[in-house]
Design goal:
Layout: E1 37-39, E2 45-49, E3 52-55, H1 73-87, E4 92-96, H2 124-129, H3 131-149, H4 155-165, E5 169-174, H5 180-184, E6 189-191, E7 194-201, E8 207-209, H6 210-220, E9 230-232, E10 236-238, H7 241-246, E11 259-263, H8 272-284, E12 287-291, H9 298-309, E13 314-317, E14 330-333, H10 336-350
Parallel strand pairs: 1-14, 4-5, 4-12, 5-6, 12-13, 13-14
Antiparallel strand pairs: 1-2, 2-3, 7-8, 7-11, 9-10
């Protein structure tokens, strides 16, 4: 997804809150043989079907490698083994979300319950019609850009890149705009919501590098401080009102038009060609693996729903509930990077 100041989804109004009584959803029996919903956490509930629940024992610290005890080695390992078995020799398309990039220092939008934990995002129509809204966006983006511009891929990005090279991942559809999949080496990436590293002139259509626009912003606002109250997702930051009120926004150097990040804002629509590319990627794969996304906004959920309706198993690695829990054939509730590392190892062992 996109930043709190320019958050990307095609229909914010369709975001829903999961009706669950705890921090994990109740999932129907899997549609895959041996499928399960696993909470990868030491001592966590492991649900293998709707009628049976077992308590996963806490793994002894001396029996597992460093860092593995926290995810419940036995229960998590079993679930990861089942997922590895599903993916072995099966090209899968990945749908990634903000949870994958938190390890790169980029905050997420929602907590594990699917609840929004960021300020109200800027809406597409407001950005187009109000100069004050554009002023607020660019002031916040100016302060927040260095964090995302200098961000490095996390282990999860690198694992997915390696799985692409091995033919396990056919392509990545990402809701993120941070470009970290490409930095990690993934080649077949569909940026559902665009890329924050590009800026578009709404008048002449010219594209500019976000790093160049940062320099223009600095020149127009030499007195602007780089300090932020706190970071927000994907190149955004919380800044003081005085900075916003005095912030000067440069126009397109070619035609004087309005500059906009080349991303899909809340209230805007995902371009048809991008959506078509995403559904074609799902059609060409044997399964959809959701990584680090609650799917609470329609742009991501509808792809999971599409895959399910096309008979493609929908699998997930995510902390907390997702909007598509009722569609999932298998789910692992845990840290994306660590689970992906274990998954890659499990696939390698099976090979």
């Amino acid at each position: 997804m996109n930043s709190a100041g320019a958050a990307a989804t095609d229909d914010q109004s369709t975001a829903v809150r999961p009706l669950v009584g705890s921090d994990r959803a109740s999932i129907p029996r899997s549609t895959l043989p041996g499928g399960a919903v696993a909470d990868v956490g030491s001592g966590a509930d492991l649900r293998v079907d709707t009628a049976r629940r077992m308590r996963a024992p806490a793994a002894p610290a001396t029996s597992v490698p460093d860092g593995f005890a926290d995810i419940g080695w036995e229960s998590g390992g079993q679930a990861i083994g089942r997922l590895a078995g599903q993916l072995r020799g099966v090209p899968v398309v990945v749908l990634s979300g903000a949870g994958l990039s938190t390890a790169s220092g980029i905050p997420a939008y929602r907590d594990r319950h699917g609840q929004w934990q960021q300020p109200t995002p800027i809406q597409h129509r407001d950005f187009l019609t109000a100069a004050s809204v554009r002023q607020r966006y660019w002031a916040r983006s100016f302060v927040g850009w260095p964090r995302i511009g200098l961000a490095s891929p996390a282990v999860g990005h690198r694992v997915l890149s390696g799985m692409e090279q091995r033919g396990i991942v056919s392509s990545v559809i990402t809701q993120n705009v941070d470009g970290l999949h490409q930095k990690a080496g993934s080649r077949r990436v569909i940026e559902l919501h665009g890329g924050i590293d590009r800026v578009l002139c709404l008048a002449c259509g010219q594209h500019f590098a976000r790093a160049a626009v940062q320099q223009w912003l600095q020149e127009a606002n030499p007195e602007a401080t780089s300090a932020a109250d706190r970071s927000a997702p994907h190149g955004d930051a919380q800044v003081t009102d005085p900075l916003v009120r005095t912030f000067r926004v440069p126009a397109c150097p070619d035609c004087g038009g309005i500059l906009k990040p080349d991303v899909v804002f809340f209230g805007d629509s995902v371009p048809r060609d991008r959506l078509a590319a995403a559904t074609q990627a799902i059609d060409a794969a044997q399964a959809l693996l959701v990584v680090g996304s609650s799917l609470m906004v329609y742009s991501g959920f509808r792809l999971a729903d599409y895959a399910h309706r096309q008979g493609r198993p929908v699998l997930a690695i995510n902390r907390g509930v997702t909007r598509a829990d009722h569609l999932l054939a298998l789910k692992i509730d845990g840290d994306c990077g660590l689970v992906l590392e274990l998954l890659a190892l499990a696939i390698q062992r099976r090979a």
